[in-house]
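Chain A, query sequence.
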Amino acid sequence: MMHGGAGLPGQTDCEGGRDTTPGECLDRIWLMLYNLGMTKVSTAVARKQFSDVVNRAFYAKERVALTRYGHTLAAIVPAEDLELLEAMEDRIDADDARQVLADMKAKGEKPIPWAKVKKRLGL
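Chain A, predicted structure.
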C-alpha cells in the first residue's frame, strides 16, 4: 500500500485512507509504474490525471497502457509511434496489393476497373 506522509492530520495514502496532495500521490504512482516497465494506468487514475498521462506520452515519449480490472483496453502513445504504426500498416497494405496483382497476372486475370466497381455497387 502506498502511504503519504507519516500519518499527520490531513495526509492520506493514495488509495483512499489518509489524504496526501494529488502531486504526492501522482509521483508515487508514476514511480511505481516506471519501475514496472511499460507504464500501465487504470482508467480511473487516467481519468483523474488525464493531462499528466498525455504529458508522459508527449514529453517523456512513454507508451501508457490504460487498464480496467487488470486488462489493457487502449493506449496513449507519442504521436511519432502512431505515425510509425500507420506507415507500417500502409507498407503492409501496399505489399499485399502488389502480391494480389502479381497473383492475378500469373493466373491471367485482370483487375476490375474502379469505375466499374462503383457502378456495380451503386456508388
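Residues 80-121 form one domain. The chain has two domains: 22-77, 80-121.
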